[in-house]
């Protein structure tokens, strides 16, 4: 007799349950151990502190840019201030993503974080356009630069502030597996490089090369565009369910090593910071439903232990004589889902 057993629980939950007459797995009494609240608190703290630091740095640089008439410093100051707006976008993305699943959005709202990441990418591209236009105007009209020493000091302050913020947000983002927060950290790191470009341009001006400032502005523009492309690519990959093949290979290896598993097929998808893995395990047709349930628990446990990126693992167990059909493949699959 054919049956498809599905176990889909976040890695922080312990499964206890029995089989009913229709041969479905019924999961009950999950126990939460994953510190989702702590992750969100860490993300919000990183965003708030970085916004305050970059806001102060940007305002100081903007004041010095007005005094010195440096387009390189002006571009850098506006780029720093744009980081405050991207932090606000990421914050709202985190706020929306914690909403529970609904009848319409059955997977929840976690992808709101990735949509916020697209907003970060848009701000980066807008910064590149503005920096390029301002640099062109100064290059074409041969504008002068004054109070060079003050301008250099502003650029150094911008470099230091952005490096500190970028390292902090990047560390938090990688720890909680947030592509959007990591993208925001790269934006801050980008600002540190643009501050260096502004400093180099002012050094050239100090040695009598007046075009050093607009040329530095052009260089900063190209670099901003490069990082904008990388950030956009990463976010789009998340939205398109792109998963590192190495992650899938590790999951397939450990699932295949479970005694009783004849073949394995694995797919993955991202929903915000959650990587969901679907594991189809082929077994002998003579295996009982109870034994299949035990095997599925073993597969799930080993995959979660070996693939730390995964937060939800769903395991299908079916006889090897016919391919396992996921719930999306037909409407009458005997399966139960949870943890979504």
Structural class: alpha+beta
Instruction: Figure out the total of helices.
Output: 8
% residues in beta strands: 5-15%
Provide the residue-averaged pLDDT: 76
- State the shape: elongated
Q: In angstroms, what is the radius of gyration? A: 26 Å
CATH architectural category of the largest domain: Up-down Bundle
Order of helices and strands: EEEHHHHHHHEEHE
Strand order of the largest sheet: 1-6-5-4
CATH class of the largest domain: Mainly Alpha
CATH topology of the largest domain: Alpha-lytic protease prodomain-like
**Domain module count:** 2
The low-pLDDT segments are 1-5, 7-33, 330-340
The rounded distance between the terminal residues' Cα atoms is 28 Å
Question: Can you tell me about this structure?
Answer:
This protein has helices spanning 36-68, 71-97, 112-141, 148-175, 179-206, 212-239, 245-256, 289-306, and strands at 5-9, 16-19, 25-28, 263-271, 274-283, 310-319. The chain has 340 residues and is an alpha+beta fold. It folds into two domains: 5-34 and 242-319, 2-Layer Sandwich (Alpha-Beta Plaits), CATH 3.30.70; 36-239, Cation efflux protein transmembrane domain (Alpha-lytic protease prodomain-like), CATH 1.20.1510. The strands form two sheets. Strands 1-6-5-4 form a four-stranded mixed β-sheet, with helices on one face. Strands 2-3 form a two-stranded antiparallel ribbon. A hairpin with a 2-residue loop joins strand 4 and strand 5 (274-283). The two termini are 28 Å apart. Mean pLDDT is 76; it is low at 1-5, 7-33 and 330-340.
